[in-house]
Structure formats: C-alpha cells, structure tokens
Amino acid sequence: MTQEGKFYPASLILQQLHDQAPAGAVTLQWLMGRLRQQSFGIIILILAIAAAAPGVSILAGLLLLVPSFQMIIGFSEIRFPQWIAMRELPTRHVGSVMGRAIPILKYLERVIYPRLATPPGTTRRVVGVIIFVLTIRLLLAPLPLSNIVPAILIAFISLTYVEQDGLLLILGLLLACLFLVFETGTIWQLIHNVRIS
C-alpha cells in the first residue's frame, strides 16, 4: 500500500485502509502488513483515540506499551504477539471509526504537514520514550477523565509523527514533558503536605 521513503498523509492512509478492508473482519496483522514503516504512528494514533474513551482506556493503554517500547529499542515495524495480531475486529466497526476520523484528519492536515525534518532513528526513539511514559501515567491513574489529557497528547504526538511535522512534533513533546513535570510536582507537593500535617 505504501512505498518506503515516500510521504503519505494520515487521511490518505486511512482512506486506503477503509477502501481495501476485507468484508467481515480485519486483524492487526492485516493492518500492519499494509502500513509497514508507517505502522507505528497510525496504530498508536488509533489506540490513543481509543484510550481517550471510558471503558477501553486500560486495554488501549496496555496495547500502547507494545509499539512505544519497540520504538525505543529500534524496531522498524510493530510486532504484536500472534494471539493479539490475529484477533479479528468487525470490519463495519473499524470502518465506522475510520469514516469519522478521515474528515477530521483532512481538516487537521491543513496545519499539520511535513516541515522541519528530524533524524528518523533518533526521532522514533524519543517519541517512543515519551509515549511510553505517558502510557504508564495513563495506566497508573485510572480515575474518571484522568486518561483524557495523556491520550490527547499521545494522539497529537503520533499524528505529527505520521505527518512528518517536526515543528509541531517538538511542540507536542515539550507539552508532554511539561504535563509530566507538572503532575509529578503536584503529586510530590500533596505527599509533602500530608507528611507535614
């Protein structure tokens, strides 16, 4: 579906997946086989959107740990365990999600587009580290609505990564670091106040 080294916007990738999806059911294996080197960004984006929804945030978060860790250690493509990769998802449900996401992505691509190229290998590892830490935060604080901010940050970072927008990717990484520092400081202050009282 894609050619190595050539840029494809996220909306076009999802549209091609939508049009080529087999009737009945799709699997992660099917998705990864067509995404190839763009599998990290697109699958992380899909999982981040799912992680923002109540009820599935924990499952999506656990799945997010796999690609983010693989980015850190230098994998060029995602490799899920076979029992996960071959799990079937109804095509109509996947198609419905893609159908709603494509117009939104086309709108966002007016401001998120290729610029300020960054080193591919280093960028993949840095993005992997930040997404991994944000995912740990998402999993360790399973309170109502506490998953929304880290999920949005993960989605934004993965989208700018797919769109090769180095400028907004750096901004997203900085925002993620500020969020993590602020939350850590807040928790530390609460612990300190409890000890004093």
Give a short synopsis of this structure.
With 197 residues, this protein is mainly α. The longest helix is centred in the C-terminal third of the chain and has 31 residues.
Q: Which percent band covers the strand fraction?
A: under 5%
Beginning-to-end CA distance, first to last residue: 61 Å
Which descriptor suits the 3D outline?
Answer: globular
Number of helices: 9
Summarize model confidence as the mean pLDDT.
85
Count the domains: 1
Radius of gyration: 17 Å
- Write the H/E string, N to C: HEHHHHEHHHH
- According to DSSP, the number of beta strands is 2
Question: What does the model show?
Answer:
This protein has 197 residues and is mostly helical. It has one domain (10-196). It is built from nine helices and two strands, in the order αβααααβαααα. The chain has a two-stranded antiparallel sheet with strand order 1-2. Helix 3 packs antiparallel against helix 8 and helix 4 runs antiparallel to helix 7 (120-140). The longest helix has 31 residues, at 166-196. 32% of the residues are buried. The model has no long low-confidence stretch (mean pLDDT 85).
How would you describe this structure in keywords?
single chain, 197 residues, mainly alpha, two-stranded antiparallel sheet, 9 helices, globular
